[in-house]
Amino acid sequence: MADGHADRTPIDGADLCVVGSGPAGSMLAHRLAEAGHEVVILEAGRRFEMDERLEQQEAHIRPGQGNIWEMGGERDAYTSSGDSYYPLNASRVKGVGGSTLHWQGMVMRLHERDFEMNSRHGVGTDWPLDYDDLRPYYAAAERELGVAGADDNPYAPPREEPYPMTAFPPSHSDSLFAEACETLELDMHSVPNARNSEGYDGRSPCVGYGTCKPVCPSGAKYTAEGHVDKAEAAGATVVDRVPVQRLEHDDAGESVTAAVYVTPDGTEHRQTADQFVVAAGGVETPRLLLLSESPQYPDGLANSSETLGRYFMDHLFAGMGGRLDRPTRQNHVGFNTSECHQFYDDTDPVNGLKLEFLNYAGPSPVIEALNGETWGDELLGQLQDSYGSHIAMGALVEQLPQEENYVTLDDSQTDDHGNPVPEVHWGVDDDTKAALERANEVQRAVLEELGVDIEWSVGPDTTGPAYHHMGTTRMGENPSESVVDADCRTHDLSNLWLVGSSVFPTGGAMNPTLTIAALSLRAADALDAVL
């Protein structure tokens, strides 16, 4: 939908209004529409059609073509404060499908320890549910996403069934890493990926474009567009380009009555429903609740605990790489095929640590050629010198929840509708830096064993986020210390539910989307019981 002529008026008699069409909102909406409920999805961004993907890929690889997912400008303005700058718009997409439009697609289950960090290690807080509570929903989420994987990880939590598809084989550079890891007694294993190793759910198998992030032209990588389509087929209504401005509640402050949204022509509408779900991500979800302040909720809707927006977390990146005097064949694969969880459950430091063996170290020959300033034999020599000799490792490191990391409103700057923009106040603590240093130690040992001429490293003093927004509407049993319960229903309002990584009490070191999906499916069951 490229213009404002589509019907964007409210739906009468809606059972459920979902704000946000990423994996959390769309998967939940599909389940409840399929169960026969009248569902409306309100999405702030536009619908990107599949026939745009090749054009977007070309724009990505060509110099100076701009942002292919149209993020930025007044609509997406934000501020960053705290000790570390947070580049928010590098990590999100506003559009039908949400940030799965440009994600990398790796999907791992949290470990059992991640749900019990306070009980086991005396840090962070415990979840109000454990791994066994979420285990059947993890299996269902893997089926819904379409995950290719293998049960070869000796450190992973227990499984109940095989992955839907076979794992992608190890890459050429994985085989090089394997030599060094065997000597150092490090265990390599496959990476579960939400991309098709074979045809699945009507989508193509991976054909190796290699531009997985930010765009998969073949459709082999899962995006939440698939569940949006399924929800629509089941009778749901999806309304794009309608940013929700605020939620309204009844006089008693016990239930939400309407989601107020604006259409592209500036018209304001009120969507009523019996139940409301906000699935707008770890930044926009708390922002919407803060914008919905009222006399009953002067500090933001559903914020009687005063924890709304607090405990913002991300995963931190550690990396190291250089050159090897053997062909490494990088950039043939745009995603990781092997990793190592051997240090994940270590207690010193206690932060989770996941090692990655990268398949996209060094420059892509296509991108380098397009950006090159030479021609002919000179350009060929430049490409031959730069391509295929690079190799690198990465790591995700857990950041434990801290009250001083938070999302709030910046009243000094407004968006295109006059609302205060989100402010991300964020920093990296000493414990997380110690875990980053530990990751670098292991990476250096592997690369030196392999004989790599190390040229760069990203560690404690140069780290950056992995762009996994977590923790700003945390779940818990105690209403005075959390925003939602174990079913993702807010403690304060009986018909308001929040789904997504914002409800994570702790973040572990695993990519969060599979857990987002599992929690969404669990919340869908709870919602179905009350609708």
Explain what this protein looks like in three dimensions.
The N terminus is likely disordered. α1 links the parallel β1 and β2. This protein has a six-stranded antiparallel β-sheet. The protein has a five-stranded parallel β-sheet with strand order 7-2-1-11-19, covered by helices on one side. A three-stranded mixed β-sheet has the order 3-17-16. α4 packs across α11 and α5 packs across α10. The chain is built from eleven helices and 19 strands. The longest helix is centred in the last third of the chain and has 21 residues. Helix content is 25%, strand content 17%. The protein has 531 residues and is of the alpha/beta class.
List keywords for this structure.
single chain, disordered N terminus, alpha/beta, 531 residues, five-stranded parallel β-sheet, 11 helices, 19 strands, six-stranded antiparallel β-sheet, globular
Short structural summary:
By secondary structure, this protein is α/β, with parallel strands linked by helices. It is built from eleven helices and 19 strands.
Architecture blueprint of SSEs:
Blueprint: E1 16-19, H1 23-34, E2 39-42, H2 53-61, E3 79-81, H3 117-121, H4 131-145, E4 148-149, E5 165-166, H5 172-184, E6 189-190, H6 225-233, E7 237-239, E8 244-249, E9 256-262, E10 268-272, E11 275-278, H7 281-291, E12 316-323, E13 338-340, E14 353-357, H8 365-371, H9 376-386, E15 390-397, E16 406-414, E17 420-425, H10 430-450, E18 453-458, E19 496-498, H11 513-530
Parallel strand pairs: 1-2, 1-11, 2-7, 3-17, 4-5, 11-19
Antiparallel strand pairs: 6-13, 8-9, 9-10, 12-15, 12-18, 13-14, 14-15, 16-17
